[in-house]
Design a protein that fits this description.
Blueprint: H1 2-8, H2 13-24, H3 29-36, H4 40-53, E1 56-62, E2 68-74, H5 76-110, H6 113-130
Antiparallel strand pairs: 1-2
Helix pairs in contact: 1-5, 2-3, 2-5, 3-4
Length: 131
């Protein structure tokens, strides 16, 4: 099932952020918008899309005859989609990191030792200045 989920999942970055917010506990829509720092109307559209996909469910809590609140929580399908998305991102980051380390090693081997030491010193000075 996970492999079919990986192929079918196409989540936007905002949808991923919303799923991360409701993964730990149920929240109201305004709390979700505040947590992801997005306008409530736009967050509402993303939540509705996630509900239509079946990744989020709505629960209404009543405490008097006319008063109620809506809480949103993640479903099992939403949790699987979130994990599939996060594992894909982790794989891409690992691939880029390995490639960049290999490239840095090749560059280091091609540069004379004195030039390498000068490059390291320049890097350290630049990091110190930009802090």
């Amino acid at each position: 099932m996970v492999s079919s989920v990986k192929e079918a999942v196409q989540l936007s970055p905002w949808e991923v952020r919303i799923l991360r917010v409701v993964r730990s506990e149920s929240r109201q829509e305004k709390d979700i918008a505040k947590n992801i720092q997005l306008n409530e109307l736009l967050a509402s559209e993303f939540v509705t899309e996630l509900m239509l996909k079946g990744y989020i469910e709505r629960r209404r809590q009543r405490w008097m005859l006319f008063f109620s609140r809506e809480y949103f929580s993640i479903t099992l399908e939403g949790l699987a989609a979130l994990e599939a998305t996060e594992s894909s991102v982790d794989w891409i980051i690992g691939f880029i990191k390995d490639g960049s380390q290999r490239l840095a090693g090749e560059i280091r081997n091609a540069i004379p030792p004195l030039a390498w030491d000068a490059a390291k010193a320049t890097y350290k000075v630049a990091r110190f200045i930009l802090k």
